[in-house]
Specification:
Length: 168
């Protein structure tokens, strides 16, 4: 791994609740010569990490799959150091979802069934003690007809968000 003079690279840590994914990731990292990454088994709602141990937490489309979003954001705030950043891409809605949508397994699989209302999502982040610095929409189109119809009806959309844990 290349390091510029006077610069130290940090360690990346990946989490997954299955045993297979971290094992596969470890093999790929070893084969690629990436020695500053580690992979742990754990749930995003209960991260196996010490308080204030990370500078940055990154998630790409994972949080909408959790039914306990508030707990996910509390965990992110817990493991971030003061000044640490949460950077994510996720799916949110402009209109609350009906119970029929939330209970549809195929809509969960297409990342719609678990999407939170955007206002509720933002409130969960801020209640956890993080400050939203930037939120923007992403170009995104769902593949299945059922997902596109639900997207049109409920204003389902992809967002990117940056939040910061205050320095206190």
């Amino acid at each position: 791994m290349h390091r510029a003079a006077g610069h130290s690279l940090g360690t990346g840590v990946g989490f997954d609740f299955t045993l297979a994914q971290p094992a596969k990731a470890r093999q790929l990292a070893e084969a690629g010569g990436f020695d500053q990454v580690e992979f742990r088994e754990g749930r995003v709602e209960a991260l196996p990490a010490e308080d204030a141990s990370f500078d940055c937490a990154i998630s790409n489309g994972l949080i909408n799959l959790s039914a306990a979003k508030r707990k996910v954001f509390e965990e992110a705030a817990r493991v971030l150091r003061p000044g640490g950043r949460l950077a994510l891409a996720d799916i949110v809605t402009e209109q609350p979802l009906t119970e029929a949508v939330v209970c549809d397994a195929s809509l969960w699989a297409s990342c719609i069934g678990g999407a939170a209302h955007e206002t509720t999502y933002r409130q969960a982040i801020e209640t956890a003690g993080l400050r939203i610095k930037e939120l923007r929409g992403n170009d995104y189109e769902f593949l299945s007809g059922q997902a596109r119809r639900a997207s049109a009806r409920y204003g389902v959309k992809s967002i990117s968000l940056l939040a910061v844990k205050p320095d206190r």
